[in-house]
Design a protein that fits this description.
Blueprint (H helix, E strand, L loop, with lengths): L17 E14 L2 E6 L2 E7 L6 H13 L3 E2 L5 E3 L1 H4 L2 E6 L21 H19 L4 E2 L6 E16 L5
Parallel strand pairs: 3-6, 6-7
Antiparallel strand pairs: 1-2, 1-3, 1-8, 4-5
Length: about 170
């Protein structure tokens, strides 16, 4: 019998929380033709979750988002964070951030977490984000058919994931 030894120090984390961050002048989520949530100037976040994401991923991502200096200072330079700026945040769960398009033309979303894992992680993410921001974070409804409207400011759109921590 041949035994294989695996060195776990070389295992690369391929699972990751993902966020698309958009600096907006305003944004809203409409469900069933009624505005569910809306914000004025701040950030619109689309967040995707995978099964092996952890609370440490949430903590890192929350800290990165609230401290990301993408708002203009008095000199017109991007030197202020959403905390410095006093902006609002709207969070929308977005499983399609994990679309795999390698084969064919129909995306696969197999890497995205199912609701039993994703919902508690999404709620924890929003709670921690609200705590760091010092005010309520607006949300969409997980799994709902939402229409998202926004006026992108800049435009500034940034993609972050917790596997690469770039």
């Amino acid at each position: 019998m041949i035994k294989y030894r695996i060195n776990c120090n070389f295992v690369k984390k391929i699972y990751t929380m993902r966020a698309v961050i958009q600096r907006v002048l305003k944004a809203s989520v409409t469900i069933n033709k009624e505005v569910h949530s809306e914000i004025s100037q701040g950030l619109l976040l689309f967040v995707g979750i995978e099964d092996l994401d952890t609370e440490q991923d949430i903590d890192w991502l929350v800290a990165k988002i609230v401290n990301l200096r993408i708002f203009s200072d008095d000199k017109g330079l991007m030197n202020k964070s959403v905390l410095d700026y006093g902006g609002d945040i709207l969070v929308v769960s977005q499983f399609t951030l994990f679309a795999q398009t390698k084969k064919g033309n129909r995306p696969s979303f197999i890497r995205a977490s199912k609701p039993d894992i994703a919902i508690p992680m999404y709620q924890l993410f929003c709670q921690k984000l609200s705590n760091c921001l010092g005010k309520e974070v607006k949300e969409g409804i997980f799994g709902a058919d939402m229409q998202v409207s926004l006026v992108n400011d800049g435009p500034v759109t940034i993609w972050i994931d917790t596997a690469h921590k770039e």
